[in-house]
Write a structure and sequence with these properties.
This protein is 69% helix and 0% strand. It is mainly α. The radius of gyration is 15 Å and the shape is elongated. The chain starts with a helix and ends with a helix.
């Protein structure tokens, strides 16, 4: 819940581990065991899911969607989005023809 509520902000392994009262390595191991993916992968997936929601439900500019999804740069957003979805955010948001 904390991650979803703060996805647009910087979320580091160190800060989350501290909130959980664990070392970074202990938190990372437990997180991966429970979720089946690394903490970093999970964060990227949640950011992409947020971006997809915004692309489908708003007419906002790409830079605003990238920032509201927690990406530091538009290029980082495009790269992560394409890697996860197989298409660019621009192509994803185009209406079907």
């Amino acid at each position: 819940d904390y991650i979803d509520a703060n996805i647009a902000n910087e979320i580091s392994l160190a800060s989350i581990a501290k909130k959980a009262g664990l070392s970074e390595s202990a938190f990372s191991r437990r997180f991966s065991a429970i979720n089946g993916i690394s903490f970093k992968q999970y964060i990227v997936e949640r950011k992409i899911e947020r971006a997809i929601f915004l692309l489908r439900n708003t007419n906002r500019k790409m830079i605003d969607i990238a920032q509201d999804s927690g990406f530091d740069s538009i290029s980082g957003f495009y790269c992560a989005f394409k890697k996860k979805t197989g298409t660019t955010p621009s192509r994803f948001s185009e209406p079907d023809i």
